[in-house]
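A reminder from the course coordinator: this example appears on the midterm review sheet, so study it carefully.

Given structure:
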């Protein structure tokens, strides 16, 4: 669809807001992305920004074309589905699976598996490589993830995550003996020397992690439950490492296997245990829980044995 848009009389405001009111079949998030992609411009072809203001009589050249959602080959792989309806899909992601395609990934990501599980049913926001993906878990992290199946659901969920209206609780095994409960609130930013890492930094963004101890094993490891009230990349891993308690198995952030203990922890011992969201359609608050996976429980059992 391509046409000339004229801002109506007695109307003014942000470009993305006015266009979303005009083209109701498209979400505001999709329109914003179209502006950023250069598909919505002034008549002379000059670019605009979503936040730019329009006045009555202003003209825009509007080209709204939904992206191809499925340029990827679907991957037949069993998913542990916790909940599914026409708006959302909630899964218990397995450890070891990358969420979406990127540099160095193969064709067996979670997105590939989703395309097989629900073909042509994922939100096109984020397509072609991230259809339906609202938030992510690291490759080695297991647990609850919610995926959007409609544009409206995607927009609602994205707003909830951005505005900290969700509740995210993790379980982890960390090095050392932890106190009964506490919180870490150091800001987190990109690591100054290693591009793929994050670090505590005065120039970083605010981050808050609250935790309580569920068990201590030989004063060498602790089983903790963590609630993150912000969503910084690698937040739990960075906070615990910066405070002298790197996650078990997390060699990126400071874990070192003791001599003779090779292979005790098969991965970074972090599990997204609970997620609470407001359902985009019903507005009901829904709680989803993913039981501890076998590898996590097995490590706890072996630690208990002494």
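Designed residues:
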């Amino acid at each position: 669809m391509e046409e000339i848009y004229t801002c109506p009389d007695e109307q003014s405001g942000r470009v993305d807001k006015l266009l979303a009111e005009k083209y109701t079949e498209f979400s505001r998030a999709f329109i914003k992305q179209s502006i950023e992609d250069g598909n919505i411009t002034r008549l002379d072809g000059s670019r605009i920004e979503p936040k730019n203001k329009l006045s009555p009589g202003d003209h825009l050249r509007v080209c709204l074309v939904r992206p191809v959602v499925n340029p990827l080959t679907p991957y037949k792989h069993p998913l542990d589905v916790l909940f599914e309806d026409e708006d959302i899909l909630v899964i218990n992601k397995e450890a070891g699976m990358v969420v979406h395609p990127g540099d160095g990934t193969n064709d067996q990501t979670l997105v590939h598996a989703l395309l097989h599980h629900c073909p042509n049913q994922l939100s096109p926001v984020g397509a072609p490589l991230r259809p339906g993906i609202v938030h992510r878990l690291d490759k080695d992290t297991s647990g609850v993830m919610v995926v959007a199946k409609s544009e409206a659901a995607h927009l609602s969920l994205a707003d909830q995550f951005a505005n900290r209206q969700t509740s995210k609780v993790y379980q982890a095994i960390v090095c050392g003996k932890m106190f009964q409960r506490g919180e870490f609130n150091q800001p987190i930013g990109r690591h100054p020397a290693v591009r793929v890492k994050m670090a505590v930094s005065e120039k970083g963004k605010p981050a808050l992690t609250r935790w309580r101890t569920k068990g201590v094993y030989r004063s060498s490891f602790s089983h903790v439950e963590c609630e993150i009230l912000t969503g910084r990349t690698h937040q739990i891993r960075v906070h615990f490492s910066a405070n002298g308690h790197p996650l078990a198995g997390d060699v990126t952030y400071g874990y070192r296997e003791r001599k003779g203990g090779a292979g005790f922890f098969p991965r970074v011992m972090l599990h997204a245990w609970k997620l609470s969201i407001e359902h985009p359609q019903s507005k009901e608050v829904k709680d989803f829980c993913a039981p501890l996976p076998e590898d996590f429980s097995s490590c706890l059992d072996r630690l208990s044995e002494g």
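The mean pLDDT is 92. The two ends are 66 Å apart (CA to CA).
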